[in-house]
Amino acid sequence: MRTLKTIKGPLKKWKLILLGTGAVLLVPWMVVLALTLPGSTEVRHWSLAWIGLDVLMATGCAATALLGLRADPRARLTAAATAATAVLDAWFDVTTSRSGGDLVMALGCAVVETALAGACVAMALSEPQKSAAQQKSAAHKGVTTTKPSPAP
């Protein structure tokens, strides 16, 4: 089991403690919201909000694809952000839709968005690719870029 002392890199113990504290403090806030928010409300700029969320998701897909094709390790970051956006879009599609045909369409969209989120999570957790320049440099130095086969 890893302890806080074994975590290396930019995650310091105090940052993890702040994250944990934030998680704990959000619980009573959620209770307050559950007890005080109205059951329904009228929203201005409804279509702008939805279009903005889809623009954000499309931009994330495009950025992830572009960076991924370049073997840029930042593609993993945009993939993670795009996954979160897709899950949020699915959540709000389903929870704000009317029953009947609107709900069926929202559920269909949620299936597609959840699949997109899954693909993005898989990319975000994958090993970073080596760019063509990195592979060429490694080959020039005599370094193999493939993983060795396990010993029998």
What does this structure look like?
The protein is an all-alpha fold and about 150 residues long. Helix content is about 70%, strand content about 0%. The protein has helices at about 15-35, 45-70, 75-95, 100-125, 130-140. Helix 2 packs antiparallel against helix 3 and helix 3 (about 75-95) packs antiparallel against helix 4. The longest helix has 25 residues, at about 100-125. The model has no long low-confidence stretch (mean pLDDT about 85).
Summarize the structure.
The protein has five helices and no strands. With 152 residues, the chain is mainly alpha-helical.
Distance between the termini: 29 Å
Strand content: under 5%
Number of helices: 5
Query: Which stretches of 5+ consecutive residues score pLDDT under 50?
Result: none
State the major sheet: none
Along the chain, the helix and strand elements come as HHHHH
What is the structural class?
mainly alpha
What would the average pLDDT be, to the nearest integer?
Answer: 86
The helix content, as a percent range, equals: 55-70%
Shape: flat
Radius of gyration: 21 Å
